[in-house]
Amino acid sequence: MKKIDLRHSLTAQIGIALLLAVIAGVLLRNQSVFVNEYIKPIGVIFLNLLKFIVVPLVLFSIMAGILSMNDIKKVGRLGLRALLYFMVTTLFAVTLGLVVPTLLKGLIPPIQINLDVADVIDVPRRTLMDQIVEMFPRNIIEPMGTMAMMQVIVIALLFGIAMVHVGERGEMARRVTLSFNDVVGKILEYIMALAPIGVFCMLTPVVVDNGPSVLGSYAVLLGLAYLCFAIHAGVVYSTAVGVLGRYSPLKFFKNMQSAMLFAFSSDSSVATLPYTMRCTENMGVGKDVSRFVLSLGATINMDGVAIYLGVASVFMATCCGVDLTVSQYFAIAFASTVASIGTPGIPGGSLALMAMVFASAGIPVECVAVAAGIDRLIDMGRTVMSVTGDASCAIVMQRATAGKMETNE
Questions:
Q1: pTM of the full predicted structure?
Q2: 388-406 as b/e, with b when 16 or more CB fall inside 10 Å?
Q3: What is 27-90 written as a DSSP string?
Q4: Which has more confidence, 87 or 15?
Q5: What is the DSSP code string of 316-359?
Q6: Interatomic CA distance for residues 382 and 315, integer angstroms
Q7: pLDDT at 388 over 90
Q8: For the segment 62-85, what is each residue's pLDDT rounded down to a tens digit?
């Protein structure tokens, strides 16, 4: 009897769920009340289950990764290398997001901005130092309840490093940590088995609520954003994986299908984290590297956000007749980079930061409310970008630390 490849089966099931959701969304366009009352809640339950498991998954997987490496210097080197990789790809992303729409400005139609003050999204300004301060938790419970992932990572790093340092005295804590890590992994398997149903129930309401009319009205903005996403993935990630990771880019994208499909349907890089871990580990990335790098990347690496903030800034400036100067371009680039690092990995997480970027470049802040009309549709694509970028970093870091991929495929 032929053995079934569960990895490919999951990808196929999620793909079928996406297709069925689109069909159901079109057929149920006039039944939005039914869809939002009976189908959407099931998708919310599934997404809640994923969010529920993410905090213990990140907490215990990072601690287990540190314990498996058993070398604090190795942890530090891996973290610094991953941070450098994320910063470099983010700079490429911001640059691409500014250059492509600038070259294609002739395609951008004028839009009359006519909004009430109440429609404007008011966002408090957050400086770089504010973000640094927010990385460190005031207590151990609050970050887990609010899903403040950077703080959860800091907690995991402190406990993991401490367990290594105390040696034999920390053996009981080590065993408990590794045991909980296995238990969390099993719960994760239960949740992932529900993926096709969850994807269908999450995406169907999106299709019902955002029909062809929305797509047509903002076709240029959507096209520019997805064009930049495709270029960034095809050039930056493919080059990184092929040259630095010495892994076939075609095999990389093929093996990432299930995570990318789920990221597209859930538009949450945090919720997609379990799928990204499974995909990278199936490609031969060690669990210690995969779980550490991906947990870090899900929090600070948002290439998709960086690209879109650049695209949206140029798009909205052109629509409003604002002729951006070189200094404004630099302001957008800097603000987009900082904002993308601080973006929460949840649906719509970047929308609130768009006002800061617009304000830094002198673009009417009211334009944020205009962009909000199709934010969910673009959020799907930029989440795929962020998840794919995290995975490419894991491939590169595996090669840099171990010198080769593990034979898991």
A1: 0.68
A2: bbbbbbbbbbbbbbeeebe
A3: HTTT-HHHIIIIIHHHHHHHHHHHHHHHHHHHHHHHHHHHHHH--HHHHHHHHHHHHHHHHHHH
A4: 87
A5: HHHHTT----HHHHHHHHHHHHHHHHT--SSTTTTHHHHHHHHH
A6: 17
A7: yes
A8: 787 777 666 667 777 887 888 889
